[in-house]
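Title: Prediction job returns without error message
Component: structure pipeline
Severity: low
Priority: P3
Assignee: unassigned

Description:
Job completed but the reporter wants confirmation the result is attached to the right record. Sequence as submitted:
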Amino acid sequence: MTAQVKQMGDDDLTLTASAQQKMQELASQVEEPIEGVRVFATPGGCSGINFGMTFTDQLADDDNVREYDGFKLIVDSGTLQYLKGVEIDFVAGDGQEARFVFNNLQPIGGGCSTCGSNTGGGCG
């Protein structure tokens, strides 16, 4: 039985060209069959939630999918509610480690909401 996934659009979650290129490169290096790249959320961090990505070989009924050249981006409905309007970028250089970054994340509450701000609060 095939999962009934929903299609994501630009208003849900977007990838920059550099993020698309890097994900396509990484997906092409995986030797086992995969469905795509799953974006997931775990409790913790300054916003109350940490986000990550992994390859997945499964789709679930509550998944949302966006197809790109060479891979699919997969996000479950629970995680997508926190990622509406977010852009994932891939940055490298300037002496920093190459990494994916999530731009336009909205404060969610919980955690240390003012972590790193100059207005007080913070983690610790």
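Comment from assignee: result matches the submitted record. Residues 17-28 form the longest helix (12 residues).
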